[in-house]
Design goal:
Largest sheet: 2 strands, antiparallel
Helix content: 40-55%
Order of helices and strands: HEEHHEHEHHH
Shape: globular
Number of helices: 7
Strand order of the largest sheet: 1-2
Distance between the termini: 26 Å
Structural class: mainly alpha
Length: about 170
């Protein structure tokens, strides 16, 4: 049922948001000639996939968790995109393809081995990663891998259709 909602919402979102995507694309292209950011992430069952977002940091920024990057690397338009969550729009493609869900644990980088280990121990790796979830709503970053994995495990244990819509709603208004 969740996969059906993911697919429908992503498909409709891509169509409705296409003019906004084109506008952001043009602005970012004029700013740095590289509007999209592609990064390998870990998905369901530890399968790797390529996450797509709008570029919010200067080209050449090292590929690591956001909390480890100097904030001066964030571009002026990138700061706006992050604050408004518009940098996440391209992930609708990842949702449409079935690599992600709207709600789930945040997909991590392959180099975040400690987080991957804890997620595997707590069976968090068994579900599709999401654009939003309990950690995002609570503002928990990836700096404490065990705490993050336990938070995600809690979300999974309590997850249902009502929570799915609640997380999406809170993310959109927040």
């Amino acid at each position: 049922m969740i996969r059906l909602f993911d697919f429908l919402f992503a498909f409709i979102g891509i169509i409705i948001l296409m003019p906004l995507v084109l506008l952001i694309f043009i602005i970012l292209y004029l700013e740095n000639k590289s509007p999209f950011f592609f990064q390998e992430r870990i998905g369901k069952n530890l399968k790797k996939f390529t996450l797509i977002k709008f570029r919010t940091m200067s080209k050449g920024t090292k590929s690591c968790a956001t909390h480890l990057v100097d904030s001066s690397r964030v571009t002026s338009s990138g700061a706006f995109l992050r604050r408004t969550k518009l940098d996440e729009i391209p992930q609708l493609w990842n949702v449409l393809k079935g690599e992600m869900s709207f709600v789930g644990p945040r997909p991590c980088l392959p180099i975040q081995t400690e987080l991957i280990k804890f997620r595997k121990e707590l069976n968090v790796h068994l579900i599709r990663p999401g654009i939003t979830g309990l950690a995002q709503v609570k503002g928990i970053d990836m700096s404490d891998p065990l705490f993050l994995a336990k938070t995600e495990q809690k979300m999974i244990k309590e997850f249902n259709l009502v929570k799915y819509f609640w997380f999406i709603f809170v993310t959109l208004i927040g």
